[in-house]
Write a structure and sequence with these properties.
Elements (H helix, E strand, L loop, with lengths): L2 H18 L12 H11 L4 H14 L3 H6 L2 H8 L6 H17 L7 H4 L7 H12 L8 H10 L9 H13 L8 H15 L6 H4 L11 H4 L17 E11 L2 E6 L10 E2 L6 E2 L2 H8 L6 H8 L6 H6 E13 L4 E11 L10 E5 L10 H9 L11
Parallel strand pairs: 1-6
Antiparallel strand pairs: 1-2, 1-4, 2-3, 2-7, 5-6
Helix pairs in contact: 1-11, 2-3, 2-8, 8-11, 9-11
Function: Adenine glycosylase active on G-A mispairs. MutY also corrects error-prone DNA synthesis past GO lesions which are due to the oxidatively damaged form of guanine: 7,8-dihydro-8-oxoguanine (8-oxo-dGTP).
Catalytic activity: Hydrolyzes free adenine bases from 7,8-dihydro-8-oxoguanine:adenine mismatched double-stranded DNA, leaving an apurinic site
Cofactor: [4Fe-4S] cluster
Length: 386
């Protein structure tokens, strides 16, 4: 690509953004590093339409980094419920504490220092530095990788380190000369990848709008737009089965806090058995287990607990439904068993907790469990704060 293209790229992209970019989003135009950081983390792996609803709510609940750092992690997870990828919420809380403790509550402007904070990678650090401090720092999220792979006809898989290094070098060269242009340029780059140079329907394919780079884009000139970036075929996601027990006693339901590094780490869920592979044999066993004995099931779910008294207090134990949940890299079938107790059973393990149904909104719940409780009409105000 010619030197003149590199020199003119930023200006042409900014010109495009004035006419065609996204404007008026609640996180745009922010120069507060905290507000920028929250939006960048929330927009990772989450659709813009969802963030449009949840970002203002999160900012109202935690308006600054000190408020977030001072909050209990359960409060943060509860506010994050439904957004998925809960490690982001845990990292947000940890990062907020780092900023308060190490930087007196002020985000550093140096991208290298930002990158040392919990949950902030190089691209996110670049975005925060560019938006909040007008630093000449590049970004390289999935959208930008796609733009550059097409513009420069990079045919090697983007997962290769040498390719990633090359993309970072290109992103550096394309930066505008003026640091004052960095917020607009960075937003323009994000918008161009999200709305015009999209994965499946880039504007150059439909021909309804004229891409500002159509005469320079090597993928367009060689008719490879939909072939780049090169896609690597993914292995089929593994499938698992588990049993979950919904124990109810009056207005209380039993929840268990999940280990921090597990799936749904740190959230409150229903007690569950080990996950087993959903092979045809295991699937058949699961389908035929609706009459399983209460003692055997409870021993399987409450591992290491003496459940003899619990079994006696269960007035019934019945299979209610099976729920399928799709994660990024796996699928899970949850067989839900419901039991009612005449009086509460006290567990010595502190990860178990009886929770008032009217206060479930104060707990971070996995989305399928939250929907399950709503569907069973266990609490009309699930998801509200009290």
């Amino acid at each position: 690509m010619s030197k003149s293209f590199h020199d003119q790229f930023a200006e042409r992209l900014i010109t495009w953004h004035k006419a065609e970019g996204r404007h008026g989003l609640p996180w745009q135009g922010k120069r507060d590093a905290y507000a920028v950081w929250v939006s960048e983390i929330m927009l990772q792996q989450t659709q813009v339409t969802t963030v449009l609803e949840r970002y203002p709510r999160f900012m109202k609940r935690f308006p600054n980094v000190k408020k977030l750092a001072a909050a209990n992690i359960d409060e943060v997870l509860a506010e994050w419920a439904g957004l998925g990828y809960y490690s982001r919420a845990r990292n947000l809380h940890a990062c907020a504490n780092q900023v308060v403790e190490d930087f007196d509550g002020h985000f550093p402007k140096d991208p290298l220092l930002l990158e040392q904070l919990k949950g902030i990678g190089r691209s996110t650090a670049g975005a925060i530095a560019a938006f909040a401090f007008e630093e000449r720092a590049p970004i390289l999220d999935a959208n930008v990788k796609r733009i550059l792979a097409r513009l420069f006809a990079i045919e090697q898989p983007l997962q290769e380190k040498a390719v990633t290094d090359e993309l970072w070098a290109i992103a550096e060269r394309l930066l505008p000369k003026s640091s004052q242009s960095m917020p607009t340029y960075t937003q323009a780059l994000m918008d161009f990848g999200a709305t015009w140079c999209t994965a499946r329907r880039p504007v150059c394919i439909g021909g309804q709008q004229k891409c500002p780079f159509e005469k320079n884009c090597q993928a367009n000139l060689s008719d490879q737009v939909l072939l780049l970036p090169k896609k690597i075929s993914k292995a089929k996601s593994p499938e698992f089965i588990c049993s979950m027990v919904l124990l109810r006693q009056g207005d209380f339901v039993l929840l268990q806090k999940r280990p921090p590094k597990a799936i749904w780490g740190g959230l409150w869920s229903l007690p569950e058995s080990d996950w087993i592979s959903r092979t045809p044999v295991n699937q058949k066993i699961s389908q035929n287990s609706s009459q399983v004995g209460a003692s055997d099931l409870l021993k399987t779910v409450f591992r290491g607990q003496d459940v003899r008294l619990l079994v006696k207090r269960c007035s019934s134990l019945s299979h209610q439904q099976e729920i399928k949940h799709v994660f990024t890299h796996r699928r899970l079938w949850m067989r839900i068993w419901e039991a009612k107790l005449q009086e509460q059973y006290c567990f010595s393990d502190p990860t178990y907790q009886w929770v008032d149904l009217h206060k479930l909104g104060q707990y971070g719940l996995p989305q399928p469990i939250k929907l399950l409780l709503q569907g069973l009409s266990l609490a009309r105000d699930v998801g509200t704060k009290s």
